[in-house]
Amino acid sequence: MTLAVMLYRADGAPIDTAFRKTPFGEADPFAEHREIAWEGPDAMAAGRVSFVGELEVSRFPHLETIVVVDGELTLTEAGAEPLVVGPGWGVVVGRGTEVQIQAQPGTRFVFCTAAGAASPMPGLTLLNPDADFMPSATLPAEVLLGPAPQCRSDNVFTDEQTQYRAGTWDSTAYHRIVRPHGLNEFMHLLAGNVKFALPDGDVLTAGAGDALFVPKGTSVGWESTERVAKFYVVQAVND
């Protein structure tokens, strides 16, 4: 059975996720530091990195969304001003980006990567908790166990080659049935708490600052009693 994968707990509580210390591809700039919790046949992976020091990357080898949970990353794209990313902020690093990366002591981040095609898509895209939200679609009535929520989103990055989108989303409270997840999805919660109901009756609870990955096909429900906001990465996967 496909399961949701917890990547980080903001309160320091232990998690039972199995991480593998392994690079994401041959040219991975974080090869010595990367810990992968989930990797799929669709060339996507999610996990965590603890890193201090400096890297000079002439061509970033893949597409990667980074959300800092401790410390501070400074990313400087060739010819641009430095981009400082602290706890609770994120950045999407485009494939082919020439970038200098500096990490302060104690820096940790969670990530969601995609390999995809070799065509470059260079650049740095900031994920901002104070997003420019616009109204977005709510859920269909047949999956809801109560009133329909009001949802908003700010999709700031799209890569059609890998069917990869990243941005910020929020919603009023809602309750949804257990059903198979339709996409690969990385989530880093910015506000609120969610109970993810599992088919066996167990419940996985996540709150602000926590990060998890839900592979396509994972059967989960959703129950929130307050506003929830999150950074997301979603990837459509062909069956």
Automatic annotation (TrEMBL):
InterPro entries: RmlC-like_jellyroll, RmlC_Cupin_sf, UGlyAH_Cupin_dom
Coiled coil location: none
Gene3D superfamilies reported for this sequence: Jelly Rolls
Superkingdom as given in the UniProt entry: Bacteria
Signal sequence bounds: none
Domain (S)-ureidoglycine aminohydrolase cupin: 164-232
Protein name: (S)-ureidoglycine aminohydrolase cupin domain-containing protein
